[in-house]
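Appendix C reproduces, verbatim, an entry submitted by the partner laboratory led by Prof. M.T., so that reviewers can inspect both the input and the predicted structure.
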Amino acid sequence: MAKSKIFITGIAGFLGSHLADALLKQGHEVSGCDNLLGGYRDNVSKDIEFHEIDAQDLEALKKLTEGIDIVYHCAAAPHEGLSVFSPHLVNKHTYTTSVVTFTAAAINKVRRIVFCSSMARYGNQGSQGGIFTEDMKPEPVDPYGIAKYASERLLKIMAHVHGMEYSIAIPHNIYGPRQKYDDPYRNVISIFANRMLQGKQPIIYGDGEQKRSFSYIDDAVDPLVKMGFQENTNGELFNIGPDEEFTTVNHAAEIIADILHFKLEPIYVPERPQEVKYAGCNAEKARRMLRYSTSTLFENGVRETVEWIKQRGAKPFEYHLEVEIGNEKTPETWTKKMI
């Protein structure tokens, strides 16, 4: 594999930092930017050129993507539930960052863009059993999903007009070490673990029977790396996530409690508006074209995540994002800072 110059937006984030390490290990020249809204500065290796800037800054990105071969666009505000109540905040950190990143890439004639979209694009297609396939018509039901799907559409147009290659990844509920665990708005595995480590019961929205295909970070990185280089991935879209394990939120809480020997008595609160009940992954296309496979069972991945949080130390939750719309439908977990 020829060595390439690679730029990653959201490089201090959970996914971006793991992706950067994998690409660096292959010998590529890696740089990136992050505004540290959803990541930790120490996630980034000292061997990587890091720029603490916001991916909404076009002039900065124009300079930083000069001479770059491949851009991985990971930056976003992936707060799906919060997006119903903070649509402006989530949109500008999700769609606007895409506009800026794709524009800078086109100006600098970047060869390929790999965009990390979201399973939120599929919406609540329960009639299909909640298992998402790439050929489904996107039907997002929240502002975050809309912003991600709009970014996909924009990328296809920009790539066509300006002669860039592109691939689109749809990761499913990635979790693992380096995930921001003091964010009260997202990352259910990390929120549960952080609360239990503080002797607090997990707070569960609805009945806890929401089902997800939780994807351990190590299993998600390999297909993303390949999407930057394989010729057969140009113009393609891939679900990335385990379809062997379709797990409820209740079961996730039980596993964490078992690992920590914690007496589990969850606190149930009303469901969040627009939350998708069943969101499962069909990864057949990724297996066929990217040789994707899952090597980490859910329980083992959760154990690794919990151990990482223990080593780093449990932390109070930081309400670092504004809830723009406060009314009777806004979860009290946020307005009253219950988490």
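The longest helix spans residues 87-107. Additional entries are available on request from the coordinating office.
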